[in-house]
Design brief:
Oligomer: single chain
Largest sheet: none
Number of helices: 5
Order of helices and strands: HHHHH
Number of strands: 0
Structural class: mainly alpha
Radius of gyration: 19 Å
Length: 147
């Protein structure tokens, strides 16, 4: 009797994919507002760095490179990235919302806070997946499957 195969869902159609793409859109929006308003350079650099890393993870999951490269535990790196994004964007967003800023910087800060909520949701989704399937994307064979 053959082992049951997991049905493959494309990354872009999954909840995790939508949350990652929403994260990228919020990061790009926040960075655009910071660039337009000529905000302090650390705001632009941090949001640009976050956009680059998020785009990297989207490409990684869409091309399924995480399944080819078994030497790195990608979900752990993704959770760490979500935590680092949350910390940095809370700092940048709170500083952007200080009273002496322009409207565009405040909008960048608001989108940054939305990004924080999305990053927390992304990290929670990945953590939940790890709890439900701790062995990762690769199925461990039981004694019954070897027969």
């Amino acid at each position: 009797m053959p082992a049951l195969q997991q049905e493959h869902h494309p990354f872009c159609c999954s909840v995790k994919g939508w949350v990652k793409m929403l994260r990228l859109a919020l990061t790009m929006t926040s960075m655009t507002f910071f660039i337009i308003s000529q905000a302090p350079e650390p705001y632009i650099v941090i949001t640009g760095f976050e956009a680059t890393i998020t785009l990297f993870f989207i490409i990684l999951y869409m091309l399924r490179i995480d399944r080819l490269s078994r030497c790195i535990f990608w979900p752990l790196l993704d959770i760490i990235n979500s935590m680092v994004t949350t910390v940095f964007m809370i700092i940048v967003s709170v500083l952007a919302l200080l009273p002496e800023t322009t409207t565009d910087i405040v909008l960048g800060g608001v989108f940054g806070l939305l990004l924080v909520a999305c990053s927390i949701a992304d990290g929670a989704l990945i953590y939940r997946k790890l709890l439900l399937n701790p062995s990762g994307p690769y199925q461990k064979k039981t004694v019954h499957d070897k027969i």
